[in-house]
Amino acid sequence: MVAQNFVVDLNKPLVFQVGHLGEAYQEWVHQPIVSKEGPRFFENDVLEFLTRTVWWAVPVIWLPVVCWFIHNSVQLGLSCPRVALFVVIGILIWTLLEYSLHRFLFHIETKTYWWNTLHYLLHGCHHKHPMDGLRLVFPPAATAILLFPFWNLVKLLSTPVVAPALFGGGLLGYVMYDCTHYYVHHGQPKTEVPRNLKRYHLNHHFRIQNKGFGITSSLWDSVFGTLPPTKEGAKSM
């Protein structure tokens, strides 16, 4: 199904075109187009609607769920200091999951029609159109589906009292991640820490796309040796 010398028509829905690029997909998808107006994905209006999510939907939908899970641990008798501890642990686990998904799944190299198509839907679209503000955060319907296996895994690995706080912390980490991700693309930070986060992530998009996989921090890039080189270091390489 891969067409030789295929050229993507940006004026037509993209999802079912990109697979035809074959091995050329990787080069194409990592040449970003900087525009706040995103492309059309599908001809079908319902499918197209489901690919677009305003950033504030993430905290509005998921923060009440976070509170509900944390409250459950309190109701089951877990002390407030221990609740806080397991929430923090949940957030930390999320940061590792965030890094691992970004590095090993979102940046997997594909070359067949359906794998290219799937990768484009999952993450390739974000690298091709990094400033598309309606495709920066994960659609809530997809998040809800993924929460079920993660919740069951947390219940399997922890106690009934601890599991809600731990899961609530992980979900809070996800909310922080998606809001941070939107902000580093579209916010105008005035202080040093968010300005450095923005610079760090945009460096991943526009300079060295196989380094700097952390979004909320560079912690796991430091641990696993995927920190991008400094500009001075890059010049000397």
UniProtKB/TrEMBL annotation:
Keywords: Endoplasmic reticulum, Fatty acid biosynthesis, Fatty acid metabolism, Lipid biosynthesis, Lipid metabolism, Membrane, Metal-binding, Oxidoreductase, Transmembrane, Transmembrane helix, Zinc
GO biological process: fatty acid biosynthetic process
Membrane topology, as annotated: Multi-pass membrane protein
Cellular localisation: Endoplasmic reticulum membrane
Transmembrane regions: 49-71, 83-101, 157-177
Domain of life: Eukaryota
Cofactor requirement: Zn(2+)
Stretches assigned to the Fatty acid hydroxylase domain: 87-226
GO molecular function: fatty acid 2-hydroxylase activity; iron ion binding
Pfam families tied to this protein: FA_hydroxylase
GO cellular component: endoplasmic reticulum membrane
Major subcellular site: endoplasmic reticulum
Family as reported in the entry's similarity comment: Belongs to the sterol desaturase family.
Protein name: Fatty acid hydroxylase domain-containing protein
Classification of source organism: Eukaryota, Viridiplantae, Streptophyta, Embryophyta, Tracheophyta
